[in-house]
Amino acid sequence: MLEIRHLSKSFGSHEVLRDIDFTVNKGDVTSIIGSSGSGKSTLLRCINLLETPTSGEILYHGQSVTGPKVNAPEYRSHVGMVFQSFNLFNNMTVLENCVVGQVKVLKKDRETARKNAMQYLEQVGMAPYINAKPRQISGGQKQRVAIARALAMEPEVLLFDEPTSALDPEMVGEVLSVMQDLARAGMTMLVVTHEMAFARDVSSHVVYMNQGIICEEGTPEQIFGDPQRQETKDFLSRFRKN
After folding, report:
1. Would you give the DSSP letter of residue 168?
2. Is 11 left (phi over 0), alpha (psi -120 to 50) or beta?
3. Going by C-beta distance under 8 Å and a sequence separation of 6 or more, which residues neighbour residue 113?
4. I need a surface site. Which of 99, 121, 153, 179 has the fewest CB within 10 A?
5. If we measure between CA atoms, which residue out of 4, 14, 12, 13 comes closest to residue 212?
6. What is the C-alpha radius of gyration for the chain, rounded to an integer number of angstroms?
7. Residue 86, Cα to own-chain centre: how many angstroms?
């Protein structure tokens, strides 16, 4: 579904990503792990075209999306993203947050968009809060609304950029639970995360990044049970100590 080929990204003279190569197949849950500053979030932002790769190619269903003629909003309706800081519209209600993209980008009529939004808000347990503004709900609830908003666009792939790192510890579980349900339902997901238990238990594929490169990748059993690279072993040992 997604192919990342020889992707590199520099900001000025600072090379953040170097020759990244991997594939995401339909139904995969790929977790990207690594220390802060290893390029994980930049990689996700490149995949969603929020950053322009310096070189390399991103293919969606075999078609390059890195050329100048790509329709980025249309592509993003298929490859949705859930951000660390929620990125909800603060002046809109929970329901309106989940309706507006469907109307503006997918050109749905408001009633169809509303029914669709309600379905996904119910799925993530946020239907009772449809008239609330973002400032009136908790961080965990905001992230669940952000997930419902992304799902309402009916994407084929969902990208998650550290979706729990801005949350209080007691709210992390409620968001991870929604993500586990999505994984069980077969949603194709690419997740940048510091939640090692999620990466180990829910992923079908794990990518470990270090200093802008893919250091090691494989199944959760391979990466967590028998890592081959010393850098991977050192990184995982820090989490085991915690």
Report:
1. -
2. beta
3. 99, 102, 103, 106, 152
4. 153
5. 14
6. 18
7. 12
Task: Measure Cα distances from 171 to 30, 70, 166 in Å.
Answer: 23, 38, 10
Q: 């010393």: which residue's tokens?
A: 230
Q: What are phi and psi of 43, to 5 degrees?
A: -60, -45
**pLDDT by residue (tens digit) across 137-189?**
999 999 999 999 999 999 999 999 999 988 888 889 989 999 999 999 999 99
d(CA 177, CA 138): 16
List of residues 6+ apart from 234 with CB closer than 8 A: none
CB-count burial class (<10 Å; 0-12, 13-18, 19+) for 48: buried
Claim: this prediction has a pTM higher than 0.90: yes
What is the rounded distance in angstroms from the CA atom of residue 21 to the CA atom of residue 36?
A: 20
* Residue 131, CA distances (Å) to 10, 14, 95, 186, 193 in order: 43, 45, 7, 30, 31
